[in-house]
Amino acid sequence: MAGLEELEIGLGLPPVSQVGLVVRDLERVVEYYSSALGLGPFTRYVFAPEKHWFMEEPCPLKLGTAKSAWGDLELELIQPLEGNGLHREFLETHGEGLQHLGFHVADYDEVFDRFLQAGFHPLERAETYVETYQGHLRACYFDTHKVGGLVCEIFWKSWLVDS
Amino acid sequence: MRLHHIGLVVPQMTEVGEALESLGFQAVTSTESDPIQEVSARFVAVGSEQELYIEILEPAQVTSPISNFLDKRGGGLHHLCFQVDDIDRAAEELISTGAEMVRQPVECVGYDRSFGLAPSQTTRIAFFRISGVLLVELLEEGR
User: Fold this and answer.
1) Residue ranges of domains in chain A
2) Which one is the CATH code of A15-162: 1.10.238.10, 3.40.50.720, 3.40.30.10, 3.10.180.10?
3) pLDDT > 60? residue A8
4) What does the alpha-carbon distance between residue B67 and residue B63 come to, in Å, rounded to a whole number?
5) How many CB pairs under 8 A join A and B?
6) Would you call A162 an interface residue with chain B, using a CB distance cutoff of 8 Å?
7) pLDDT tens, position by position, A95-105
8) DSSP characters for B85-110?
9) Which residues of A touch B132 (CB under 8 A)?
């Protein structure tokens, strides 16, 4: 079995830190996961980024989100509320389900450039201050569909770096 | 119950394996077929302190349980798998929460081959639909 240190090759991605699940009714799923499965607590917030680009076109976006730690991993539930983006597209095309794997990167610009150099292009990205966490967020979904339909997100959260 | 792997259904195992390597992830098992599940699978390590994998799955037969998913979606993230000590007990607990069992516990010799295990009791897995949204696999490793 390969050692974990060997993972830091290629794009230099860290271990997976987030699994994203697109849902139609956030409250219904949070309620079930909390009461039936004992997951949580969930941190809910409406994600309405100051800057958002879908297919490199600036446009508004509003998502309902709920997040919970699952060991080392964060489970992110996402309900599209307003605007166009990958999550709405996923819901309309595939229905509810697992949508992305997220990686928290220490050097966002460097990893972003490595994705570009590897031939993966941005599908959707956002930059904003997040009041709930009182910190800044930068995030980008890349077109990694050729990896078996896998969607990869890189993100940088100042509150994780500073903590 | 701990998260063991994230299932990724793909049409072409070889191409995806190469693409995953370009993302920086390495396969930690060879590709093994499982005659009961009718899938071929291999595991890629993506974890940090705990072992966490992506399981790349390809149908081995057109009757494979994942063929429908592939036809409808063209592939993608398919399920989350949790390792448990006692699959029968964990299954009962999940069902009591309203989860729908979509596959009863069955043996999974492909998993044992993948990880080079030779247990006297074969690894068993079961699948559940949770809240109509999430497909969850339970895995009791052979011993």
Assistant:
1) 15-162
2) 3.10.180.10
3) no
4) 7
5) 131
6) no
7) 999 999 999 99
8) S-HHHHHHHHHHTTPEEEEEEEE-HH
9) 96
Nearest CA in chain A to B12: A148
Contact B109, B116 (CB under 8 A): no
Q: Which residues of A touch B22 (CB under 8 A)?
A: 10-11, 118
For the record, the structure tokens of A89 come out as: 């597209």
Query: pLDDT by residue (tens digit) across B66-80?
Result: 998 898 888 899 999
Instruction: State the Rg of chain B over Cα.
Output: 15
Classified by CATH at the fold level, domain B2-140 comes out as: 2,3-Dihydroxybiphenyl 1,2-Dioxygenase; domain 1 (3.10.180)
Q: Write the pLDDT tens digit of every residue in A23-54.
A: 999 999 999 888 877 788 999 999 999 999 99
Band (A11; pLDDT cuts 50, 70, 90): confident
Please report the pLDDT score of residue A20 as a whole number. 95
Per-residue confidence (pLDDT) for residue A104, from 0 to 100: 93
Closest CA to A127 of A114, A140, A116, A115: A140
Tell which B residues from 45 to 64 touch A, by Cβ distance under 8 Å. 45-50, 52, 54, 56
User: Closest approach of chain B CAs to the CA of A48, in angstroms?
Assistant: 24
Q: Do B73 and A94 touch (CB under 8 A)?
A: yes
CB atoms within 10 A of CB B55: 22
Q: What is the per-residue pLDDT across B15-27, written as a single tens digit (0 to 9) for each?
A: 887 777 777 777 8
Q: Across the interface, do A148 and B75 touch by the CB < 8 Å criterion?
A: yes
* Residues 16 through 75 of chain A touching chain B, CB cutoff 8 Å: 16, 19, 21, 23, 28-29, 32-33, 36-37, 70-73
